[in-house]
Design goal:
Blueprint: H1 2-15, H2 22-32, E1 35-42, H3 43-46, H4 50-57, E2 63-69, E3 74-79, E4 88-90, E5 96-101, E6 104-109, E7 116-118, E8 124-125, E9 129-131, E10 139-141, H5 151-155, E11 161-171, H6 189-200, E12 212-217, H7 224-236, E13 255-262, E14 269-276, H8 290-297, E15 305-306, H9 317-320, E16 332-338, H10 347-362, E17 367-372, H11 374-377, H12 379-383, H13 392-402, E18 412-415, E19 418-422
Parallel strand pairs: 12-14, 12-16, 16-17
Antiparallel strand pairs: 1-11, 2-3, 2-11, 3-5, 4-7, 5-6, 8-9, 9-10, 13-14, 13-15, 17-19, 18-19
Helix pairs in contact: 8-10
Family: Belongs to the TRAFAC class TrmE-Era-EngA-EngB-Septin-like GTPase superfamily. Septin GTPase family. Belongs to the IFI44 family.
Protein name: TLDc domain-containing protein
InterPro entries: G_SEPTIN_dom (IPR030379), P-loop_NTPase (IPR027417), TLDc_dom (IPR006571)
Length: 428
């Protein structure tokens, strides 16, 4: 009897192996900070019944659920609040869903409402996604909108599970090499004031150029207009919303706009102008026309020109014979990328960015990438902005952009609730 029991225990323990690869585990830990994952529950071993789940997972603190389906998707969710079968609705602003898109897990934050109902049933997130539904290897989507998820993207519309695992999330006692800052930044008010003063006193090397013109390019909703509003607010000393911004599915910016920034309400104009464009879209005939980029770079497109996605900019006959001055041309291009959507960027938008990158390269114009919404992409950064350069997840996002079709090199990084890194060292 002893021998049989021992053999059974060994067999059970042997079957309690994680379905995650070491790299996948590492990426999930990066979402949560300096943590370790301990496997509590494996449905194929313990059973898909709600009672089996609660027996293993109740009162275990923060947990991470990982599901696998027949199509090969790996996805799930995190909650920082214990399962206790209290029957209460749980408020948990740290809760999120995730889905691996390639090698990287994409994080989906809550819109509003309760993170879950803490009952005796199967695990659920937002009463929207139910795992092991009806005590079977099945995923059920109720259609609620607590989380903005796309079933096709998150789990390939495949609700048949092959496995469901739950991990206990604990703070790691050891400091991993990933937690060493990958860039040293001085987060002080004095440093901020010094940087602002450097901007105020900047003078272009060419005397005919009084202000540097910076062109912002990016997909719809990446945050181009919001970034200008942030910069303008910093120097104005109050919240401003001069540029229209939002999260619509199509571009809110329909005109080419040039935005000077003043140093305070009564201050002088600063030595740069931010130029906003229509967002890039996947569909042909929608969003910014690639042919318009060359005209903008060469300084031919006037302020308030209304873009026509179906037809590129046509030169005014009176301007054709007068070449644009150096002051009217673009001196720097900024690619604005949403950190929460890098892995979800369509191949068509990537191709458009790559095409623009080649055109800008041909004119030897300096280029940088501005990565926005990094606090939404990584819960660690959301808790503490100064942990940005401790986040290996954000580092992986930087590397992912660098390795994409744009091939922007990561030489320097700057952060102000957005991430900035350059392909050319700016010494002037």
């Amino acid at each position: 009897i002893y021998s049989s029991t021992t053999s059974f225990i060994h067999a059970l323990n042997a079957s309690l192996t994680s379905g995650l690869t070491e790299e996948q585990r590492k990426q999930l830990c990066a979402l949560l900070g300096d943590v370790k994952l301990s496997l509590l529950y494996k449905a194929s071993v313990h059973g898909y019944q709600a009672s089996a789940f609660h027996q293993r997972c109740d009162s275990q603190g923060p947990t991470l659920l990982v599901a696998y389906n027949r199509t090969g998707y790996i996805f799930g969710g995190y909650t920082s609040v214990d399962y206790t079968q209290s029957g209460q609705y749980i408020t948990d602003r740290e809760a999120f869903l995730f889905s691996f898109q390639g090698k990287i897990p994409v994080c989906i934050k809550m819109n509003s409402g309760y993170a879950r109902l803490d009952d005796a049933g199967v695990p659920n997130f937002g009463q929207q996604l139910y795992f092991c539904y009806n005590n079977q290897p099945v995923l059920y989507n109720s259609g609620a909108n607590v989380f903005s998820l796309n079933p096709a993207t998150m789990y390939g519309n495949d609700t048949q599970l092959t496995e469901c695992e739950v991990y206990k999330v604990e703070q790691s006692s050891a400091v991993s090499i990933e937690q060493k800052p990958w860039r040293n930044v001085l987060w002080t008010a004095e440093r901020k004031d010094k940087l602002m003063e450097t901007i105020r006193n900047y003078k272009p090397l060419v005397t005919s150029v009084s202000r540097v013109r910076i062109l912002m390019i990016g997909p719809v909703g990446a945050g181009k207009s919001s970034f200008f509003n942030s910069i303008n607010s910093i120097f104005m000393g109050r919240i401003t919303s001069k540029a229209m911004s939002g999260s619509a599915g199509t571009s809110l910016t329909t005109q080419f706009r040039t935005y000077p920034v003043k140093d305070g309400r009564e201050g002088k104009p600063l030595p740069f102008v931010l130029c906003d464009t229509m967002g890039l879209e996947e569909q042909t005939g929608a969003g910014l026309d690639i042919e318009d980029i060359s005209s903008i770079l060469q300084g031919h497109v006037p302020d308030r020109y209304k873009f026509n996605p179906m037809a590129p900019f046509q030169h005014n006959e009176q301007r054709v014979y007068r070449p644009a001055s150096l002051q009217e041309k673009i001196h720097c291009v900024v690619y604005v990328i949403d950190a929460t959507k890098i892995s979800l960027m369509s191949s068509k938008v990537e191709e458009k960015l790559a095409s623009i990158h080649r055109r800008v390269n041909s004119q030897s114009i300096p280029q940088i990438v501005l990565m926005t919404k990094v606090d939404e992409a990584c819960p660690l950064v959301e808790k503490d902005l100064q942990s940005l350069y401790l986040s290996s997840y954000i580092k992986s996002k930087v590397q992912e952009v660098h390795g994409g079709q744009t091939q922007i090199k990561c030489y320097c990084l700057v952060k102000c609730k957005v991430l900035l890194y350059s392909c050319i060292k700016f010494e002037s």
